[in-house]
Specification:
Helix content is 30%, strand content 24%. The chain is α/β, with parallel strands linked by helices. A nine-stranded mixed sheet has the order 5-4-1-6-11-8-12-10-9. The structure holds uridine 5'-triphosphate (UTP).
């Protein structure tokens, strides 16, 4: 196989309503909620950059302008910080070459599949990555790489389409997209022979759930074009991917690292605690607080 085209573009669907975090998300996008001192979207964008992705495409909706502002240059802030002799290094990861942040609007939140389809003109005829920023993927401590970097490395061997998966207790699968695994290629790589969104527990093909990171071929846009509504009355990305299986290679990568479901309140709190405890500048203090709270 000749080397597959490199992944240079990523789509970040951020047009969801974030109803599980209301009222916090009435005026602030869910993706701007911080885990310690970085908004969720920043973690995802940093993960994309680590994987060699250059162009970030945000699919936004009403009330989401703070995300775009976050990646803009804040002149007044920077001038004031400079005058006061403060270090501007903390803003470094939110800086971009002009043209590398692109936004497109999803006027009505019709579902994740529809949000991705809204980016079709910008994605063009290139394979691309997708990040769901509320799924926080953290590299293994002590030299591990991020989830998308692991996927891009696997993609260099497989080409085609890849999704990241993780195993969860079987009785919880009906809230997620679930894969039907085929041949095991390596410890962390499996063929995918089927996909189903939010199946009833007794009909789930496995306990491996899709976990918020994808590398897809541009043909998915044509499949999404006529994708009908699925689970929850939404146009589902999982359903469109399921229709592509058999026409193109499809693999699942089990991420060697940790995942926090920050779209749920308990997952969000867990991520905040875990990441705060690991920080050199505050870990000792946070652990002491946790011990005190536990009595
Ligand atoms: P979620 O299922 O987490 O939905 O979407 P949500 O609206 O963000 O949050 P809740 O469930 O109401 O609390 C998964 C991802 O797909 C995006 C979301 O922004 C999130 O990144 N999405 C979802 C869209 O961009 N558009 C949609 O129509 C639906």
């Amino acid at each position: 196989m000749s080397s597959p085209k490199p992944i240079k573009k990523a789509v970040f669907p951020v047009a969801g309503l974030g109803t599980r975090f209301l009222p916090a998300t009435k005026a602030i996008p869910k993706e701007m909620l911080p885990i310690v001192d970085r908004p969720l979207i920043q973690y995802a964008v940093d993960e994309a950059r680590e994987a060699g992705i250059e162009q970030m495409i945000f699919v936004t909706g009403r009330g989401k302008t703070a995300i775009v502002e976050h990646f803009d240059v804040a002149y007044e802030l920077e001038d004031t910080m400079r005058e006061r002799g403060k270090d501007l290094g903390v803003l470094e990861s939110s800086r971009f070459v002009p043209g590398d942040i692109i936004t497109v609007r999803q006027q009505v939140p019709l579902g994740l599949g529809h949000a991705i389809w809204c980016a079709r003109a910008i994605v063009g005829d290139e394979p691309f990555a997708i990040f769901l920023p509320d799924e926080l993927m953290i590299a293994r401590q002590g030299g591990g790489t991020g989830c998308m970097k692991q996927m891009v490395d696997a993609y260099a061997q497989t080409g085609g389409n890849l999704i990241s998966v993780l195993e969860i207790p079987r009785d919880q699968v009906s809230s997620y997209g679930v894969i039907d695994p085929g041949a095991q290629v390596s410890d962390t790589l499996t063929e995918v022979t089927g996909l189903v969104e939010k199946p009833p527990v007794d009909q789930a093909p496995s306990n491996k759930i899709v976990s918020g990171r994808y590398i897809l071929q541009p043909e998915v846009m044509r499949v999404l074009e006529d994708q009908e509504k699925g689970a929850g009355g939404e146009i589902q990305l999982t359903d469109a991917m399921a229709r592509m299986i058999g026409t193109q290679p499809f693999h699942a990568v089990t991420f060697d690292g940790r995942r926090y479901d920050c779209g749920s309140k308990t997952g969000f709190v867990e991520a905040t605690l875990a990441l705060a405890m690991e920080r050199e500048d505050m870990g000792d203090e946070v652990r002491a607080i946790a011990r005190r709270l536990l009595g």
